[in-house]
Amino acid sequence: MIDNAAVITMDQGRRELTSASVVVTGSRIAAVSTDPIDAALRDNAQIIDGSGCVLTPGLVNTHHHLYQWITRGLAADHTLFQWLTTLYPIWAGIDEDAVRVAATGGLTWLALSGCTTTTDHHYVFPAGAGDLLGAEIDAATTVGLRFHPTRGSMDLSEKDGGLPPDSVVQTIDEIITASAAAIDRWHDRSPDAMVQIALAPCSPFSVTTDLLRASAELARERGVRLHTHLAETSDESAFCAERFGTTPLAYMEQVDWVGPDVWFAHGVHFDDSAIARLAETGSGVAHCPTSNARLGAGIARTRDLLDAGVAVGLGVDGAASNESCRLLEEAHQAVLMARAVGGPTALTTRTALELATLGGARLLGRDGDLGSIEVGKLADLVLWRLDGLGHSGIDDPVAALVLGEIPPIEGLWVGGHRVVEAGVPLTVDVDTTAADVERAHRTLLDRAR
Questions:
Q1: Strand 2-8 vs strand 53-57: parallel, antiparallel, or unpaired?
Q2: Per-residue pLDDT tens over the stretch 315-355
Q3: Cα-based distances in Å from 247 to 35, 92, 384, 385
């Protein structure tokens, strides 16, 4: 039982409780109450004192590239296409050990910023590199986060007019076979699922039309979701106009890549008609404001997307284009970016927190079990401490969370299991993980040289 905490429920009524108790039994929330808890229940519960804290739903990260955790700080002043062509030769050297180390580091850092559920878009599969998807799933199991990895892919290399080198692309047959195997091996359809798979060809400029169609067909046959980058930069819009004679979204619609089972990363350059089509088809968008700013891609039209009824979540994006990778920081940046172009009322702090919680759960099809603090939902929870110098004197806990510095985490639970206590991960050793990351980073750079 988490007692005496302020609680931001994100329930249907968006209730905010100044002092409440939340009871967890097993993996689920059993009670949310401002009234005294039954004495018998209290006597048998482990009591967590929430005084000076605010409890929120666990944050949901809807776009990431965990393998990039060991290539942070490189190509720091490049455009997206320059950044990709610089880093692809380095990424071509990743292997199973590198991905496991990178994922462990990245997932631990996400947990320390309040994230309980994350996706990952892994699309680099060098020949002979080992079981890369399995390595990051092992890392997520170790860290203890709920995980929605995507089996990404690329089949359009430099020689075919794409950006990636030949060494990191695969044939369509290889990709579809591996994608089907990943679904069979790891996708858990149960309500309590800790791992669910989606299919995610990388982007319009690194995959063929045939791969997009085949992936969509397989995903719908197996009942899993679809994900890709789209409309991230003006360069991509120009590529689609030249190669396909249309806009990025219109191209995706031609290959059956719209619908409530599809979410796109970025969406910076969607025009009015594209936003309307996203809403009409139920397609979602993962907003990644920090990465978009880091690469100079632009500012997504978050307010327009929400006003049109598009499902929007937040993503940290890959660690090589967002070295901080803190999900609560994305809520902060989402507010600032929206207001920078749309004025001071363009995005409220509460809307930003909703994007980081319930919005992300909706993109992943998990909003029936995640994203809010309600009886019967999974106990994915974050207890943030707000009584320190960084937040004392801020009466509004949501303003403190979204506009202030990232607060210390008193507790983070995934399915009722505690993953972080008093700012310390309980499942991995931070110093050991940092040393492993440093080793993997140096090994990868030496291999590229």
A1: parallel
A2: 999 999 999 999 999 999 999 999 999 999 999 999 999 99
A3: 55, 30, 43, 46
Q: How far lies 109's CA from each of 27, 121, 327, 434, in Å? A: 23, 17, 10, 11
Q: From the CB of residue 338, how many other CB atoms can be counted at a distance below 10 Å?
A: 26
Helical ranges in 92-171 per DSSP H: 96-111, 132-143
Q: Is 106 helix (H, G, I), strand (E, B) or coil?
A: helix
Give, in order, the Cα–Cα distances in Å from 153 to each of 72, 169, 444: 22, 7, 21
Residue 268 three-state SS: coil
Inter-CA distances, 13 with 3, 56, 57, 380, Å: 21, 15, 15, 19
Output DSSP code: residue 130.
-
Crossing angle for the helix pair 132-143 and 172-186, to the nearest 10 degrees: 30
What does the alpha-carbon distance between residue 89 and residue 118 come to, in Å, rounded to a whole number? 27
For 24, 145, 288, 365, 417, the CA distances from 413, given in Å and listed in that order, are 10, 9, 25, 20, 5
Single-letter residue type at 342: G
The pLDDT-based confidence of 36 (bands split at 50, 70, 90) is: confident
Contact present, 95 and 418 (Cβ < 8 Å): no
Number of other residues whose CB lies within 10 A of the CB of residue 364: 25
Give the residue from 271, 272, 267, 264 showing the smallest Cα distance to 292: 267
